[in-house]
Amino acid sequence: LKLSARLRKAIESGKLHLHYQPQVDMRSGQVRALEALVRWYDEEYGDVSPVDFVSVAEASGFVSALGEWVLRAACEQAAKWRAQGLAPMPISINLSPVQLQRTNIVTTFQRVLHETGMAPTLLELEVTETALMKNPEAAVRQLDEFRRCGVRVAIDDFGVGYSSLGQLSALPVDRIKIDRAFVRGIGHGDTGAIATAIVTLANTLGLAVIAEGVETITQQDFLLSLGCVDAQGYLYSEPLDPDAATRLLEQGA
Ligand code: G
Ligand code: G
Ligand code: MN
Ligand code: NA
């Protein structure tokens, strides 16, 4: 069977998994949110990276089904944590640009939130700059609608998509995630000029900011010196399977 057919089956039969990577306050190490990241192990193909299978789903016309599965799985996990009495933890999920071109995404997502008892204010959607530049009117309108019902929006991989300052200021977003390409070199010959500029830009536009791919104390301290306090990266934690994520949340309870 072709990869796309196997993927479609995996979605239908719930054979995908979510891992959760902590987003921490670098000053205290406290976990502030979790990013859900989809994983797929196929018996024939082995571990397939989401980089590959998300594009297959996009090309084969079922990325919305994949995205809805991811949302539902994240919300169901949150419901389990709630039932265990753990403190509410915001969850970020990644949206494919193709999902934002579908006009019924807001209604679909609202239905899933309702069915799983998930508070919209605990959900953040990560979208890339390119998603917002491709079909700006439709994307902007839907993201506006999400934000009106309390869902937060972040621009993922920020800095690699060349959006202009003017475009950025018009976007309905709450925060930007500094792409790890601009964090990686800090302490390894990179002056951090781009990261500095992105933090300044976020401050200017009144947006929150989070750094991705923080792997060293040098990178952490540099970002903190800029006033960027939130981060994600291997220095704190890899993406965790649900059991490990549960243990982490239990420690904080
Ligand atoms: O987790 P990992 O580093 O393997 O992720 C690789 C890429 O796959 C990242 O760009 C990430 O944003 C993307 N990705 C992970 N999970 C999802 C998901 O649920 N939906 C979409 N659209 N992309 C995802
Ligand atoms: O594009 P997006 O930000 O959604 O990608 C998230 C992916 O980044 C996760 O799948 C995760 O595996 C990867 N990632 C998270 N932290 C680090 C890190 O510190 N270094 C590197 N190289 N990758 C990371
Ligand atoms: Mn992301
Ligand atoms: Na990213």
From TrEMBL:
Show where the EAL domain sits. 1-253
Name of the protein described by the UniProt record: EAL domain-containing protein
Origin organism is Trinickia fusca
